[in-house]
Amino acid sequence: EPTVRTELMEQIPPIAIFLQESRPKFPTAFFEYLMPIVVRYLTDVNNQVRKAGQEALLILLEQDLVSQSDIENKVCPILLDLSAPDSDDEYKVEAVNIICKMASMLSRTTVEHMLLPRFCELCSDGKLFQVRKICAANFGDICNAVGQEATERLLIPKFFELCSDSVWGMRKACAECFMAVSYTTSPEVRRSKLSPLFISLISDTCRWVRQAAFQSLGPFISTFANPSSAGLYIREDGTLNIRPTTLDSNSCQPSNNIISCSTNATSP
């Protein structure tokens, strides 16, 4: 019964945590028994069971309970099979979604060598716009996972494709994650390539794309700032934050609702 398999999947993470805490008593139980079940359920015929398996896998990865060898030899191969060009549409959509979600939990080397080539292929998937949209929505996370060099060499060309996609929802998704993509690139790429690209989004024919681009305008501009002087930085969750700065001798202090600036200089 699918409901039984779904319930089983929901129990896998707490059992895995228990086995991890009791590892001297159960040194190989998780790898021998539980991990093969999780991997098998990623291809279950019932979508609710697959969804439960995907959620269990993400929890296990987040808790750092899956070994590097299992990730490379069991998890990644099955996701690559499910996201292959000739894979079933529903399986492919689910696979690209979980690839994007797990990228931030894996090592940079694993993502770059095992998952990044397939992600780049999926960005150009001409059959399913849902696949391209998932790629566009998570583009910033993938850039952050692989770093500047791989982003500029492999991902920026794909980002240009998605920003000019015929489906306006794709362009809107790109506008929404523009700041995260920009933050991963060098100042030169940001200035010479991403700035003109952003102008094209802010001038888009679709008002929803333009609106999303205008909402990202401030965050995008902030990526040009020097974090040490501007106090702007990107948190791990991808949000823009302001680091509190200590007031020095050349600082502005509010006084009676008027900003008064003090300086050591003799001239006004």
**Rg measurement, Å:** 23 Å
Helix content: 55-70%
Q: Give start-end ranges of low-pLDDT stretches.
A: 247-268
Strand order of the largest sheet: 1-2
Mean pLDDT: 86
Taken in chain order, the helices and strands follow as: HHHHHHHHHHHHHHEEEE
Shape: globular
Largest beta-sheet details:
2 strands, antiparallel
By DSSP (H or I, 4+ residues per run), the number of helices equals 14
Q: Can you count the beta strands?
A: 4
Helix/strand/pairing category:
mainly alpha
Descriptive notes:
GO terms for molecular function: protein phosphatase regulator activity. The chain is mostly helical and 268 residues long. The protein is 67% helix and 5% strand. It has helices at 2-21, 29-41, 47-62, 68-82, 89-102, 108-123, 129-137, 139-146, 148-163, 168-176, 178-184, 187-202, 207-222, 227-230; strands at residues 232-234, 240-242, 252-255, 258-261. Strands 1-2 form a two-stranded antiparallel ribbon. Strands 3-4 form a two-stranded antiparallel sheet. A hairpin with a 2-residue loop joins strand 3 (252-255) and strand 4. Helix 2 runs parallel beside helix 4 (68-82), helix 8 (139-146) runs antiparallel to helix 9 and helix 10 (168-176) packs parallel to helix 13 (207-222). It is globular.
